[in-house]
């Protein structure tokens, strides 16, 4: 590995050779003692004001032949390091940290005057709460770690950076509580991260693929959150968290399916209310997945599922519809998915118009034109609302809803039963990082049921979840 | 996930195995034993409870069925016996699969559908049976509350319509009714045999044999209560109510307004039954794997093969259910007690219980 | 390496293949089954005797289309003849082009002539049909069941809906009508008693009842047809599946009171010379068959608590709401008389309306075998009627 030679011109040239990009700039200057210095930095990601004021200005006053120690002491900045390897110096420049070289220097000095443009810490749009903390993670890993550190004033909180991505060199911060998280899980996480050989990690979601035991599975296997309070609560339960630089979405493992039925607010409201809302979420999700399927299966194969008066109303409303019940439902469901997708991506002012158009098209015009029937729209509307009761599972549940509809339209109610059986079987056999996805229901962990779909009050939850196998079992003394 | 916990075995015995007895068995018993239908069922349950006790005592040895047979009879004989036992389980699976088919065609459709509507069952069976047996344990954890909810839901909606006095006078069907009923019900009672493929995979805990037997009897009591309610509702017309658990709840007064809301419970129980009726197939595959080596590809080939065989059988025997039932409760009834009542105690008495010697 | 990759991705490929197959099946949209658009939803069936077999009239729901207003049920009636009921249903299929589905059939009406034969032969098709709810109401009607089903109801969109209302819980509690279902009728038939009962429906032309709904008329296929109302205060008695007798309205009331079903019913009595209307507020009934010292004894008892309406009363009488002893005595006598007539009718017809044989069989099979056959003729019931004022 090429190292600093001490000849300033040669070293600068070597760095420029490693970093030929136009935005890598050099700033040569001389100290009072006559020593020539050069700062090599990346134009866009270096705080030049700080560099000028706190680095160049004091160094200009340096007299005599400067030593490495003298240069480090003269620089008015806390984050100062030195490095011999040209390659590592080049990496630091790319990260935004300018490198200081001078004639006769045995090492390059790295100054941490990185310029980072970050947005303010704000409430994440995907997880809004009425009661409880409103902070959300942002794209900067340092600020995110500060949000966590603020909540755990203990040396047990360990934040271990792992660099992932051949080109992006993305910092992934592995966070856990020593003595609370399972050591094997930490090792497994780090091992999996180190094995990743990819050039670029744009977001934490890339990592989920590598952390999952069944990467091709439709089922989620890694927990996600945008809120530091939830993240910390999961760490406190014994999970391992991952913060990825450039992503506001933190990951947690092991993941249990029941997590997505829990909201942070559940812990800030009375337990009976929390239990009620959790059950309501489950009910809404089941309605969302099964209602269109059962509606179609009933119309095609088993009319008896309807009460007679409802059946006659439905029969009346679909009489002039040109499609079969299954195609009609598929059509309405697809239109809903399209509207949903479009309204999320559209600019806000267009989105407003689109939702009005969508409502008009679906609610009024389509029915009047005899294109689709009113009951079908009502069913899909119910289903659409229900899906958002558990927002973290939308990607999976909307596919499941469509699959249910397809089997219901092909085989009928028994198809729904079989697909449910298949899904359950698949879910109960899935596990990641030693934790079964469906715990505490399967395998049944009685103790953990207290904070599953039913939530006991805090006093009844003195122990950490058994499923997570934390070595430190007690959290409430 | 390699071992079955005691709890999972209890759930199997109390909540999964009994549901298979709620489809055609009640009408069959009512046909032969009339109002005495509880007596043969109770006798079977007691016999099976004893066999379950023996099978669970065998689990204490922490040896698979094949290891036990091999230790006692040698490798070749063990292979032969194990194969015969696997064939028995496949034979035993025929009735529940056909039952399931008839149930589905009759209860989930308003008009008789084609066989294609039931074909996905075999796809499901092929998938599930290729999975390790121990993974079923987790499914039992999941299905146990479903089974209880479905059973009690149906019972709650049905019990008000039942005239339990219809079960009187006891013994009206006479000895012929009792023995006839006992003979015709053998095909539904082979629960202890289903435990034998699980041997070696059960995490035995103290008192498991007793507790397992009590759980089995609790499930059996559920069956008896259902039989009583069923006969109380349909009385002399019980014989006509082929899919018993789907028929009893429809007389609930709320049904007229809500529609067949009881279908929710029926669907839930059907889900449990779907898993319950593939248990013998899964057991047969497990036996084969124990004898011929545990290889993933072999498990897949066997499960796909078994499912295909059953698909063909269902196609061939589509309209011959009556004859099959007559054969199972007539000339072939002895096969069931041979494997599920005699085998567990025989293994307990003569089977080697020392893995090292085996 | 390539083989490993193949096995690793095989499940995914199989899932895709499966998904493709399901999609193909889904879009093929041909399930060899009958969906809602190809279905004739039968609401009620009328069965009559015809030359050489049966005539079955099915009332089929005719949904109103995509109108904004919902509610209301228009219907069409289609009749067909055949050797068996099954033949007739097939003929209806041929006539309508829609598959007749019985899953919502909540009423079967037997014509008077048809009821005089063993009706199980007519009902066999329904009893053995997996897709037919045996909880549907069963009734006999005066004259032709087809005409009854096809008649224009004055109070409901479809005749079957109006008739079903006669058998509602509220109507049964009034004691004016008894209801029976296909299942219970079959239980009675196949049971040791071999008897059962069915409500007997009569129609009356509604005076001044014009056709004010053109749409309804068009749907029902009638132009100037008179509107009708239905009553089922009489009860047909069945033995061995044949209609053997008819209970009058009073006897039907007595039967309801013995069953303990009546909570809001009324009946007329006298206060000296003046007629009074008595409202049953509470009712308990009992039919007990006891075997003592080898002798079988029957007791028919009913207890009724009444309010008196329709008499001239002082303010004090109204405030106390009590019924005078004379009225109670008269009512007691009246109800006892109704009950005696009821028993005599049943006995004369050989209809074991109270399932006495079944009760004897359940309590003593031996005694049943000895005396079961001639039980009705041998019994002389002790009849008790206790009538009290509600206050």
Keywords:
heterotrimer, B: mainly alpha, Amino acid/polyamine transporter I, C: alpha/beta, GMP Synthetase, Chain A, domain 3, 2 domains, 10-stranded mixed sheet, 4-stranded mixed sheet, 14 strands, 38% helix
Description of the structure:
- The complex is a heterotrimer of chains A (477), B (358) and C (391).
- Chain A is α+β, with helices and mostly antiparallel strands and 477 residues long.
- Helices cover 44% and strands 12% of the residues of chain A.
- Chain A is built from 15 helices and 12 strands.
- Chain A has helices spanning 8-18, 48-60, 68-74, 86-95, 141-149, 183-195, 204-211, 228-237, 271-300, 308-318, 325-345, 348-368, 374-387, 394-410, 413-429, and strands at residues 24-30, 36-42, 80-83, 99-102, 108-111, 157-164, 170-177, 223-225, 240-244, 250-253, 431-432, 435-436.
- In chain A, the strands form 3 sheets. In chain A, strands 1-2-4-5-3 form a 5-stranded antiparallel β-sheet, sandwiched between helices. A 5-stranded antiparallel β-sheet of chain A has the order 6-7-9-10-8, sandwiched between helices. A two-stranded antiparallel ribbon of chain A has the order 11-12.
- In chain A, a hairpin with a 5-residue loop joins strand 1 (24-30) and strand 2.
- Chain A is elongated, with a radius of gyration of 29 Å.
- Chain B is 69% helix and 0% strand.
- Chain B has 17 helices and no strands.
- Chain B has helices at 6-16, 25-33, 38-59, 65-73, 75-107, 120-129, 133-158, 174-185, 191-195, 208-234, 244-247, 255-258, 263-277, 279-292, 296-316, 321-329, 335-350.
- Chain B starts with 5 loop residues before the first helix and ends in an 8-residue tail after the last helix.
- Chain C has 391 residues and is of the alpha/beta class.
- Residues 66-70 and 210-222 of chain C have low confidence and may be disordered.
- Chain C has 2 domains: 39-247, no CATH class; 249-389, Nutrient germinant receptor protein C, domain 3 (GMP Synthetase, Chain A, domain 3).
- In chain C, helix 4 (120-127) crosses helix 8, helix 10 (249-259) packs across helix 12 (325-349) and helix 13 (356-363) crosses helix 14 (365-371).
- Chain C has helices at 2-28, 85-96, 112-115, 120-127, 145-150, 159-166, 169-173, 182-190, 214-220, 249-259, 315-320, 325-349, 356-363, 365-371, 375-378; strands at 39-50, 53-62, 74-82, 99-101, 107-110, 137-141, 152-153, 195-205, 227-239, 242-247, 266-271, 274-292, 295-309, 382-389.
- Classes of the chains: A alpha+beta (477), B mainly alpha (358), C alpha/beta (391).
- Chains in contact: A-B, A-C, B-C.
């Amino acid at each position: 590995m090429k190292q600093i030679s001490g000849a300033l011109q040669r070293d600068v040239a070597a760095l420029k050779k490693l970093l030929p990009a136009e935005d890598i700039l050099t700033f040569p200057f001389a100290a009072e003692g006559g020593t020539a210095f050069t700062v090599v930095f990346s134009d866009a990601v270096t705080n030049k004001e700080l560099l000028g004021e706190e680095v160049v200005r004091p160094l200009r006053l340096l007299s005599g032949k400067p030593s490495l120690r003298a240069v480090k002491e003269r620089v008015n900045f806390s984050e100062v390091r030195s490095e011999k390897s040209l390659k590592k110096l080049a990496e630091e420049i790319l990260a935004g940290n300018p490198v200081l070289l001078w004639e006769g220097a045995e090492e390059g000095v790295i100054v941490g005057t990185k310029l980072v443009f970050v947005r303010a810490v704000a409430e994440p749009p995907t997880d809004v709460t009425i009661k409880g903390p409103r902070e959300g993670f942002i794209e900067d890993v340092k600020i995110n770690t500060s949000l966590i550190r603020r909540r755990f004033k203990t040396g047990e909180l360990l934040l271990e950076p792992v660099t992932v991505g051949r080109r992006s060199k993305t910092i992934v911060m592995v966070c856990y509580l020593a003595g609370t998280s399972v050591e094997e899980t930490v090792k497994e996480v780090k091992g999996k991260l180190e094995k990743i050989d990819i050039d670029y990690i744009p977001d934490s979601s890339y990592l989920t693929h590598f952390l999952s035991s069944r990467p091709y599975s439709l089922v989620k296997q890694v927990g996600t959150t945008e809120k530091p309070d939830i993240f910390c609560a999961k760490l406190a339960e014994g999970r391992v968290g991952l913060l990825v630089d450039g992503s506001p979405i933190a990951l947690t493992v092991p993941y249990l399916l029941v997590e997505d039925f829990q909201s942070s607010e559940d812990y800030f409201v009375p337990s009976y209310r929390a239990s009620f809302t959790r059950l309501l979420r489950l009910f809404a999700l089941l309605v969302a997945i099964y209602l269109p399927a059962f509606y179609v299966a009933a119309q095609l194969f088993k009319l008896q599922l309807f009460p007679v008066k409802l059946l006659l109303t439905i029969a009346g409303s679909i009489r002039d519809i040109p499609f079969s019940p299954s195609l009609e439902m598929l059509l309405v469901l697809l239109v809903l998915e399209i509207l949903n997708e479009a309204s999320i991506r559209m600019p806000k002012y267009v989105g407003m118009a689109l939702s009005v158009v969508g409502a008009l098209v679906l609610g009024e015009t389509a029915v009047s034109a005899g294109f689709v029937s009113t009951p079908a729209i009502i069913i899909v509307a119910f289903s659409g609302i229900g899906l958002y009761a558990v927002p973290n599972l939308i990607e999976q549940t909307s596919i499941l809803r469509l699959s249910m509809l397809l089997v219901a339209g092909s085989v009928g109610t028994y198809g729904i039963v079989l697909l449910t059986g298949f899904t359950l079987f698949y879910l109960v056999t899935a596990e990641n990082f030693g934790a079964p996805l469906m715990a505490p229901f399967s395998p049944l962990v009685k103790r953990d049921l207290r904070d599953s779909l039913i939530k006991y009050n805090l006093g009844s939850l003195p122990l950490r979840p058994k499923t997570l196998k934390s070595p430190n079992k007690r959290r409430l003394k | 996930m390699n071992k079955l916990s005691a709890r999972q075995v209890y759930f199997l015995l109390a909540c999964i195995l009994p549901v298979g007895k709620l489809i055609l068995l009640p009408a069959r018993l009512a046909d032969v034993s009339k109002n005495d239908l509880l007596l043969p069922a109770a006798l079977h349950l007691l016999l099976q409870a004893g066999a379950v006790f023996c099978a669970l005592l065998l689990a204490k040895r922490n040896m698979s069925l094949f290891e036990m047979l091999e230790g006692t009879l040698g490798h070749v004989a063990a292979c032969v016996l194990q194969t015969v036992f696997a064939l028995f389980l496949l034979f035993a699976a025929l009735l529940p699969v056909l039952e399931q088919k008839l149930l589905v065609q009759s209860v989930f459709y308003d008009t008789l559908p084609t066989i294609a509507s039931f074909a996905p069952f075999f796809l499901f069976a092929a998938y599930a049976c290729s999975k390790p047996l121990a993974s079923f344990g987790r499914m039992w954890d999941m299905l146990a509350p479903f089974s209880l909810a479905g059973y009690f839901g149906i019972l709650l909606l049905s019990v008000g319509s039942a005239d339990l006095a219809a079960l009187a006078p006891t013994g009206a069907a006479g000895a012929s009714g009792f023995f006839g009923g006992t003979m015709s019900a053998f095909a539904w009672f082979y629960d202890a045999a289903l435990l034998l493929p699980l041997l070696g995979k059960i995490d035995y805990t103290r008192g498991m044999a007793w507790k397992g037997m009590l759980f089995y009897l609790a499930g059996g009591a559920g069956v008896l209560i259902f039989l009583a309610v069923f006969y109380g509702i349909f009385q002399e017309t019980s014989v006509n109510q082929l899919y018993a658990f789907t028929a009893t709840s429809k007389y609930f007064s709320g049904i007229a307004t809500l529609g067949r809301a009881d279908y929710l419970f029926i669907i839930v129980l059907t889900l449990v039954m779907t898993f319950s009726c593939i248990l013998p197939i899964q057991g047969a595959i497990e036996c084969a794997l124990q004898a011929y080596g545990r290889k993933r590809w072999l498990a897949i080939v066997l499960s796909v093969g078994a499912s295909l065989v059953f698909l063909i059988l269902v196609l061939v025997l589509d309209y011959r259910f009556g004859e099959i039932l007559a054969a199972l409760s007539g000339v072939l009834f002895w096969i069931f007690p041979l494997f599920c009542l005699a085998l567990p105690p025989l293994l307990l008495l003569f089977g080697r219980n020392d893995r090292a010697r085996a | 390496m390539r083989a490993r990759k193949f096995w690793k991705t095989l499940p995914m490929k199989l899932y895709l293949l499966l998904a493709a197959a399901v999609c193909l099946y889904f879009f093929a949209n041909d399930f060899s089954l009958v969906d809602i658009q190809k279905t004739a939803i039968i609401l009620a069936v009328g069965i009559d005797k015809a030359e050489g077999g049966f005539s079955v009239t099915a009332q089929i729901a005719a949904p109103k289309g995509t109108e904004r207003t919902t509610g209301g049920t228009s219907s069409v009636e289609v009749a067909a003849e055949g050797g068996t009921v099954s033949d007739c249903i097939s003929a209806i299929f041929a006539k309508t082009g829609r598959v007749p589905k019985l899953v919502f059939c909540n009423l079967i009406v037997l014509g008077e002539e048809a009821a005089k034969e063993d009706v199980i032969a007519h009902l066999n098709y329904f009893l053995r049909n997996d897709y037919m709810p045996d909880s549907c109401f069963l009734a006999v009607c005066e004259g032709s069941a087809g005409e009854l089903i096809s008649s224009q109801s004055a109070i409901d969109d479809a005749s079957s809906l109006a008739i079903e209302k006669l058998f509602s819980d509220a109507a049964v509690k009034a004691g004016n009508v008894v209801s029976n279902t296909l299942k219970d009728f079959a239980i009675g038939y196949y049971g040791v008693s071999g008897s059962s009962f069915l409500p007997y429906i009569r129609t009356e032309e509604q005076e001044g009842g014009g056709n004010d709904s053109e749409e309804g008329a068009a749907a029902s296929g009638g132009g100037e047809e008179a509107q009708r109302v239905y009553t089922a205060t009489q009860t047909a008695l069945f033995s061995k599946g044949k209609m053997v007798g008819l209970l009058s309205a009073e006897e039907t009331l007595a039967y309801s009171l013995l069953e303990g079903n009546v909570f809001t019913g009324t009946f007329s009595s006298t206060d000296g010379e003046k007629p009074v209307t008595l409202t049953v507020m509470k009712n308990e009934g009992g039919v007990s068959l006891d075997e003592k010292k080898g002798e079988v004894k029957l007791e028919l008892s009913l207890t009724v608590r009444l309010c008196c309406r329709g008499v001239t009363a002082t303010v004090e009488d109204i405030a106390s709401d009590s019924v005078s002893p004379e009225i109670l005595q008269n009512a007691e006598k009246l109800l006892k008389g109704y009950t005696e007539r009821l028993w005599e009718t049943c006995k004369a017809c050989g209809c074991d309306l109270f399932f006495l044989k079944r009760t004897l069989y359940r309590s003593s099979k031996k005694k049943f075998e000895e005396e079961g056959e001639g039980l009705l003729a041998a019994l002389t019931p002790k009849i008790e009627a206790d009538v009290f004022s509600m206050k």
